[in-house]
Amino acid sequence: MYRWYGLDEVPGDWGRSVVTIGVFDGVHRGHQRIIARTAGTAASLELPMVVITFDPHPAEVIRPGSHPTLLCTPDRRAELLDGQGADAVLLLPFTLEFSRLGPEEFVHEVLVDRLHTAAVVVGENFTFGHRAAGDVALLAELGEKYDFTAEGLPLLADDGITVSSSDIRQKLAAGDVAGAADYLGRMHRVEGVVVPGHRRGKALGFPTANLATFPHTAIPADGVYAGWLAVLGEDGHEVARWPAALSVGTNPTFGGRDRVVEAYALDRDDLELYGAHVAVDFAARLRGMERFGSAEALAEQMHRDVDQARALTMGSAR
Distance between CA 78 and CA 55 in Å, rounded? Predict the structure, then answer.
């Protein structure tokens, strides 16, 4: 798969293609449906499929300070799109200047001039151009002018509720990682770099990896979870993976103030992960965050948490 960071990286001899456009944060089941339709159209036309996405999130540029929490990093998004069959991912830097392009300017500069688009598939609520002035109807009209077709696909709904990135963020904020996984089609992942902590877990018999998470990451509600800890290579792919007990919160038993994400690889006390790029996948919530009367009481609960995490993860599907 090709990854292009900006229009200048699109090869000058790139031929015709079939395109879908969106932020695609999380690449959830609704996104997957649109991408699958695009892939089908590309296959029928015997053309490559290009997915256009954006970074940073457009909301941060249009309304500074309103950046939503992100369900995945841009690199993870590209990896997931690759898994959905994209032949190329075009990550467009969403700048203030770019946001001021009119709908026809956007179509001509991106779809026509660079990608030589033959067909576009988007969600039925797709908007584009300055102040979101363009919609699917205008896209189809411009397609007639510039020789491409445009299709707006109805959004995926579960029991009448549209599957959306916003709803997934709400589920995560409530600690409903199982519900988020249902919408995503996989477990929610949080990435970060392992940094030194207070070593309290190690003193209690559960050495944890402390994650310095990336900005704007969607982190589940405070609590203890079962899941997995993975080490990622330079290309973002996993090089090692272990079942884990995960903790999100401020460590109230010790009077902590900083909210941290920690992961204990079950039954492993030999891992040296400082400086490693890691990911934690959240499978199930075990309990909320609690303050215990002593370190001993906390350790007893941690043993129970680990036993429960082991029962939920050992031998189960990834």
Answer: 12
| pLDDT tens across the length of the chain (318 residues) | 999 999 999 999 999 999 999 999 999 999 999 999 999 999 999 999 999 999 998 888 888 887 899 999 999 999 999 999 999 999 999 999 999 999 999 999 999 999 999 999 999 999 999 999 999 999 999 999 999 999 999 988 877 778 999 999 999 999 999 999 999 999 999 999 999 876 666 666 788 999 999 989 999 999 999 999 999 998 888 999 999 999 999 876 656 668 899 999 998 988 999 999 999 999 999 999 888 878 788 889 889 999 999 999 976 555
Write out the residue limits of the CATH 2.40.30.30 domain(s) in the chain. Answer: 188-313
pTM reported for the whole predicted model = 0.91
| Separation of first and last alpha carbons in the chain | 24
Record the tokens describing residue 73, joined without a space. 């990093």
Residue 170, φ and ψ in degrees, nearest 5:
-65, -40
Q: Per the omega criterion (within 30 degrees of 0), is the bond before 56 cis?
A: yes
Q: Are strands 149-153 and 49-55 parallel, antiparallel or unpaired?
A: unpaired
Q: What class, spelled out in words, does domain 188-313 have in CATH? A: mainly beta
Name the CATH topology of 2-158.
Rossmann fold (3.40.50)
Task: Tell which residue, 122, 231, 216, 218, has the closest CA to residue 175.
Answer: 218
